[in-house]
Every structure is written in structure tokens, then in C-alpha cells.
Fold this sequence. Notes:
Elements: E1 11-15, H1 19-35, E2 45-48, H2 51-61, H3 64-72, H4 88-104, H5 109-125, H6 131-142, E3 153-159, E4 165-168, H7 176-183, E5 190-192, E6 195-199, E7 217-221, H8 238-247, E8 251-255, H9 275-297
Parallel strand pairs: 1-2, 1-7, 2-3, 7-8
Antiparallel strand pairs: 3-4, 3-6, 5-6
Helix pairs in contact: 1-2, 1-3, 1-9, 6-7
Keywords: Lipid metabolism
Domain PNPLA: 13-204
Pfam families: Patatin
Amino acid sequence: MPASGGDSHDRALVLGGGGSTGNAWLIGVIAGLFDAAVDVTNADVIIGTSAGSTATAQITGAALPRLFEETLAPVPLARSAPRRPASTSTRTADHLGRFRTLIDASQGPADMRRKMGAAALQMAAATDSSWQSQWRATVAARLPDVEWPHQPVLLTAIDAESGDPVVFNRHSGIEFVDAVAASCSSGLPYKIGDRHYLDGGFRRSSENADLAAGYSRVLVLSPLDGRSLQPPEWGMQLATQVEELSATGSLVEIIMPNAEEEHLFGVNAMDLSMRPDAAQAGYEQGKVLARRVSDFWG
Length: 298
């Protein structure tokens, strides 16, 4: 378990979203780096979005070798996510289709977030309300520690009612499990108190690397290759965020999956059977990139 980063603004680790396989790949990359004597979990802040929020909780709460070993194991049926309104593959395709439709009907990112929230709340009204408690239990079972880590972490989401971007931390007054569950809630709203929240991938991008502004070195792990369905003119893409960070003096390094592993992500992101392959691919990539990352990370 990493030590606290304190108040230093030197190194930021950004863990992007990418579904279940993206989570496995993130763990694999970090474990591969660790086994090559590069420990990026000692970041001064870790920024997690969606599956990256789960990975943030996992790498700050468990020993990496054991975490990686568990990720390589096939997922037992009992640990699968609760059933939602449709099958995994259909749900992923439908979700992407709804997202594209909402983008096409939106005037900009703020309008898109409001429309996404309204659509999600409407869909939730027609969904079995037991999903929330089931999802919370599923997320809690994935976390090595249900308490907020002492190390600074930021977990992203959006407010489903207002569409406003949200960032949770240990001072937000909510439980760690709820912050993670909201950040990776995908297309269904997760209720905390009297508000509903949606997946952090809707905030700006699957990475939300802009939250690392002010840090000297920013390492971004992006399971989805920095891609975005949003129009380039909206300026929401990872590339734009990197330009913004660089303009204010940050050095940025990005790790993305190799092209030959592309089939493990995207529409297959929620295929639990692909988690071991994604983790192994990430691990090998981490070992290969260790020297480069070491020179960057210090």
C-alpha cells in the first residue's frame, strides 16, 4: 500500500475508464511497472474515472502482486455484476448508441451532460430499484478497503439532475464505496443522499486528465486510447487536455493499450472472461515501458 502523497504537487497518476477489461489492464500495467522497480502508486494524487476509480481504490488498498494475481484469475459467477435491464453485450452497444444520439442532439458538453442525466433518470424510473443496493454491494466486494485512503485521490462523476461535473475526495462527506460506485455507474444514476450521479466518463472524457493541472509530471493510463465520441470542436478529448497541461508547464506521459489488444476493449469492455488477457497484456506492456516511465517519473 503506498504512502501518503502529502501536499506535494509533483506527480499525478491518471487512471482512465474502460470497463471491466480496462480495469484489468490498468492493474496489469501498474503491476508490470512495479515488478520492474517502478512504483507509480506513490503519486501525490491519483485521479480515477469510472473503471479507473475502481482501480484507484484497489491499488491504494492492496499489495500489487496479490492484486495482479487475483485479476489474472477467471471471475467466479458469484462476483459478476448485478443483472441490469439487458445482457452485457446488448447493454454496451445500446449505451454507446444512446450516447451518440444525445451528442448529436446537444449544443455542447454542458447540454450533453444535462440531456444524459435526464435520460438516465427517466430510464431509472422504469428499472428495478434494487439495482442500486446490488451495485453498491458489488463495488464494495471489489475494494480491498472501504475507507478513503490517506493518499489524496480524486474520483469523477456528474450530477444527473444538473449535469454539473463532480469530483469526490475524502472531504466530500460521503463513503468511499459510494464515490467509487457513482464514478463507475455507467448509464444508470447512482443515488447518494438526495442527489443522483452518473459515471465520471461523462464529465469531460474517460480520463479527465485536466484535473491534474498544477502537477509537474502527469502519467496518464488510458484503456480507451484517448478516444472520444464527442466532436473535436468541443475540446473534450484527451489530446486537448494534454495540450492544456503542457501549456501550464506540466510534463505528460501517456500509456495506451497496444493495437493488437484493441479487441479487449470497446464493445468487449464488460466481458469478464477477457479480464485475465487484458491484465496480462497490461503487465507485459508495463514491463516493456518501465525504463521510459522510470526516467519520466523519477
